[in-house]
Design brief:
- It contains eight helices and 14 strands.
- Strand 8, helix 5 and strand 9 form a beta-alpha-beta unit.
- Helix 1 (12-22) crosses helix 8 (286-297).
- Helices cover 28% and strands 28% of the residues.
- The chain has 308 residues and is α/β, with parallel strands linked by helices.
- It has helices spanning 12-22, 63-77, 106-117, 146-153, 171-180, 223-234, 253-259, 286-297, and strands at 3-7, 29-33, 39-43, 51-55, 82-87, 121-125, 140-143, 161-165, 184-194, 197-204, 211-219, 239-247, 264-268, 280-283.
- The mean pLDDT is 93.
- The two termini are 30 Å apart.
- It has a seven-stranded mixed β-sheet, with helices on both faces. Strands 1-4-5-6-7 form a five-stranded parallel β-sheet, sandwiched between helices.
Length: 308
């Protein structure tokens, strides 16, 4: 079955890199826009019977997600045999449960909409919570950024390194790295008064004289990471580096990072940086997505990508 790869407006920069690794050309499509802002995609080549991949992160604004839905419907009506949505950053995944009365479970709604539109499969990287996979009744290839970060960290981790997480929700993620590199794990426990605002931060564990690597999936306003870095430094940490998969970096995040105790922030390119920063290093996810696309098309095991 022939493979055809298309890009959403939001992830064209990443799709180009994936195609370069994969060795294919970009599918021909365009988006027509009306004067009032309404839009719809047009596929300018046949996809009848094809194995179609559409690459687009669904971060804000919501038009990015809606564009993905419209493409799925377009490909379905054009008789594509199999439609896989490659969503490097799955927006709204943080809204994965009812943590208070009268709030939506938006991640479940997003899953329902993708399936209703006609998607046969979803591929994404580092969901905010593993249980989001359970919201789907179609296969979900949940790629893990450890395939990107672990090889890179081999040149950084030493006998003085500790891994940490900025909140208890990230313990499993940080423990995975600590176990892999045979290092200790410390935990930062935060409390919030409201969304995107940290009230207090406590460090559980001994960090004095150690090089600490904080592990998280999303850096949004950077408030939590900067508070964790400050708390670790106050407890005597020698240096603090951070690994975050998705660089949302909204509001005054760049300014906070520049003024923080964070020595270096390593992120992937699931989202483009809004501006350059001397403290931020970007690692590409293109090779991982390229291998995953090839693996899915050839009906091989995704687990083979993590054989190491």
């Amino acid at each position: 079955m022939v493979v055809k790869i298309f890009s959403g407006t939001n992830s064209k920069y990443l799709t180009d890199k994936i195609l370069q690794v994969y060795g294919a050309k970009l599918g021909d499509m365009s988006i027509q826009k009306f004067s009032d802002g309404e839009f719809h995609p047009i596929i300018n080549e046949s996809v009848r019977g094809a194995f179609v991949f559409h690459i687009n992160s669904t971060n804000a604004p919501v038009e990015n997600f809606f564009e993905t839905l419209l493409f799925i419907d377009t490909a379905k009506r054009a008789s594509a045999e199999y439609i896989t949505c490659v969503i490097p950053y799955f927006g709204f995944a943080r809204q994965d449960r009812k943590d208070k009365s009268r709030v939506p479970i938006t991640a479940k709604l997003m899953a329902d909409l993708l399936q209703a539109a006609g998607a046969h499969r979803v591929m994404t990287l580092d969901l905010h919570a593993d249980q989001v996979q359970g919201f789907f009744n179609i296969p979900v290839d949940h790629l893990r950024s450890e395939a990107i970060f672990k090889p890179f960290l081999k040149s950084i981790v030493n006998e003085n390194t500790l891994f940490s997480c900025p909140d208890v929700g990230g313990v499993k993620r940080a423990r995975n790295y600590a176990k892999y590199f045979n290092t200790e794990l410390v935990i930062c426990d935060k409390s919030r008064v409201k969304v995107n605002e940290v009230n207090s931060m406590q460090v559980i564990g001994e960090v004095e004289g150690h090089d600490v690597i904080l592990v998280d999936d999303i850096v949004d306003t950077a408030g939590t990471l900067c508070a964790a870095a400050s708390a670790l430094k106050s407890k005597g940490a020698k240096s603090i580096k951070v690994m975050c998969t998705h660089p949302v970096l909204s509001g005054s995040a760049y300014e906070k990072i520049e003024a923080s105790e964070i020595e270096r922030l390593y992120v992937t390119d699931t989202l483009p940086l809004k501006k350059e920063s001397s403290k931020i290093t970007v690692l590409s996810s293109a090779a991982l997505f390229s291998k995953a696309i090839s693996t899915v098309h050839e009906h091989k095991s995704i687990a083979e990508l993590y054989a190491d």
